[in-house]
TrEMBL record:
<keyword id="KW-0812">Transmembrane</keyword>
<dbReference type="InterPro" id="IPR035952">
    <property type="entry name" value="Rhomboid-like_sf"/>
</dbReference>
<dbReference type="GO" id="GO:0004252">
    <property type="term" value="F:serine-type endopeptidase activity"/>
</dbReference>
<feature type="transmembrane region" description="Helical">
    <location>
        <begin position="180"/>
        <end position="199"/>
    </location>
</feature>
<dbReference type="GO" id="GO:0016020">
    <property type="term" value="C:membrane"/>
</dbReference>
<keyword id="KW-0720">Serine protease</keyword>
<dbReference type="Pfam" id="PF01694">
    <property type="entry name" value="Rhomboid"/>
</dbReference>
<keyword id="KW-0645">Protease</keyword>
<feature type="transmembrane region" description="Helical">
    <location>
        <begin position="120"/>
        <end position="145"/>
    </location>
</feature>
<feature type="transmembrane region" description="Helical">
    <location>
        <begin position="94"/>
        <end position="114"/>
    </location>
</feature>
<keyword id="KW-0472">Membrane</keyword>
<feature type="transmembrane region" description="Helical">
    <location>
        <begin position="157"/>
        <end position="174"/>
    </location>
</feature>
<dbReference type="GO" id="GO:0006508">
    <property type="term" value="P:proteolysis"/>
</dbReference>
<keyword id="KW-1133">Transmembrane helix</keyword>
<feature type="transmembrane region" description="Helical">
    <location>
        <begin position="63"/>
        <end position="82"/>
    </location>
</feature>
<dbReference type="InterPro" id="IPR002610">
    <property type="entry name" value="Peptidase_S54_rhomboid-like"/>
</dbReference>
<keyword id="KW-0378">Hydrolase</keyword>
């Protein structure tokens, strides 16, 4: 029973959710989750300020949310997707995928907005990191499909591709959603996960 319980426990996912909930409570206490001054104070990503030296915003922005709906949808996605990636990759590699996707997407988004000349941009949310998890799942399902090209594996691969397409359609329909940061997160998560999977295969071959 202990082994079964351990398999069903996903500490990193639960800790990440707790951090998001804690900071959301802090947002409300300091003025409200939809108050731009509060979000700025707590570390929302504002490209001009990040470039000026406040690089910590690339991290902190991943744990802030604009309103209850934003928080609930992201935490629900993190709960389901995070546990799958954590179970597949383990603690360390899961953290690598999550934080590289989130911070990397925020960094590329900053460069992108400055290059396009967008002004008054404020970005918050775990969405970019979560899109990195979707990219990770795509890499995992793709590897499984390459190994065993069964109907079940093909169906799983098609399902995650459909999820990605629906997500990007939604991104383009809702003005407040950042399509570019989601795309950056997805790509980073996929690339890093593919690299980690290749390392995993190589290590198995060397140890066998």
């Amino acid at each position: 029973m202990n082994k079964t319980h351990q398999k069903r426990f996903y500490p990193i996912t639960y800790i990440l959710i707790c951090i998001n909930l804690t900071l959301f409570a802090l947002e409300i206490k300091l003025g409200g989750s939809e108050n731009l001054n509060t979000l700025d104070y707590l570390g929302a990503l504002i490209p001009e300020k990040a470039i000026a030296g406040e690089w910590w915003r690339l991290l902190s922005a991943n744990f802030l949310h604009f309103g209850w709906l934003h928080l609930i949808t992201n935490m629900a996605a993190l709960y389901f997707l995070g546990r799958l990636v954590e179970a597949s990759f383990g603690l360390i590699r899961y953290l690598i995928v999550y934080f590289f996707s989130g911070i990397g997407a925020m960094f590329l988004f900053t460069l992108f907005t400055l290059k396009t000349g967008e002004e008054n941009v404020v970005l918050v949310g775990a969405s970019a990191a979560i899109m990195g998890l979707i990219g990770s799942i795509l890499a995992i399902f793709l590897q499984i499909w390459f190994k065993k090209r069964t109907k079940v594996n093909a169906r799983r691969l098609r399902l995650i591709i459909v999820v990605i397409i629906i997500q990007f359609l939604f991104d383009n329909l809702v003005p407040e959603v950042s399509f570019s940061s989601h795309l950056f997160g997805l790509i980073i998560g996929f690339v890093i996960s593919s690299f980690l999977l290749l390392l995993q295969i190589r290590n198995k071959e060397l140890s066998s």
